[in-house]
Write a structure and sequence with these properties.
By secondary structure, this protein is mostly helical. It is 64% helix and 0% strand. α5 packs antiparallel against α7. The radius of gyration is 18 Å and the shape is globular.
Length: 169
């Protein structure tokens, strides 16, 4: 049963208690997390964000390069998003998760923001919190991080010319 159908089969459309993995939270001592940001729940500080950038060898130069690409990406973002989802709906599992035209439209709007955010030049706590929120949604619908990575890598591999400045013929 898909995550979407599992949630639909619960009383009044609310997910059952076992729908979410409560043991996956970093905050086992306080179950009342509704008053905390995802950064607080996962105990991610500004220092932790900087450490992660160092582990990824993400430098100010990388930030500058991404930021310098923003205007070019902005000109092509609608095509990038459209092409990304054309590729994704070739997989029945992904089509089932997306479900309908309205959801697809919301996903495309969100993906546009997601992409433009990458080229913003700001990779601070707010940026990380937005990424955590997206991850939480993916977790809720049963889309594991490895699947997300595969989808993005596959898209980038098949469309790398767009990023390099030359489209396929």
């Amino acid at each position: 049963m898909t995550p979407r159908l599992k949630a639909a089969n619960t009383q009044e459309g609310f997910p059952s208690e076992n729908t979410y993995d409560h043991n996956n939270s970093s905050d086992h001592t306080n179950n009342n997390t509704v008053h905390k940001t995802l950064l607080e729940i996962h105990r991610i500080s500004d220092h932790e964000i900087e450490k992660r950038k160092e582990l990824l060898y993400f430098t100010d130069n990388d930030r500058d390069i991404l930021e310098s690409m923003r205007s070019k990406i902005e000109l092509n973002v609608d095509k990038i998003v459209s092409d990304f989802y054309k590729q994704q709906v070739q997989f029945p599992e992904i089509t089932l998760i997306i479900g309908d035209a309205e959801t697809m439209q919301r996903l495309q709007i969100s993906m546009r923001s997601y992409i433009m955010d990458i080229f913003s030049g700001f990779y601070d706590a707010e940026y990380v919190n937005r990424r955590l929120r997206i991850g939480k949604v993916h977790q809720r619908i049963g889309l594991p991080p490895k699947t997300i990575c595969i989808l993005f890598v596959s898209y980038a591999y098949n469309n790398h010319e767009v990023y390099a400045g030359s489209e396929r013929s």
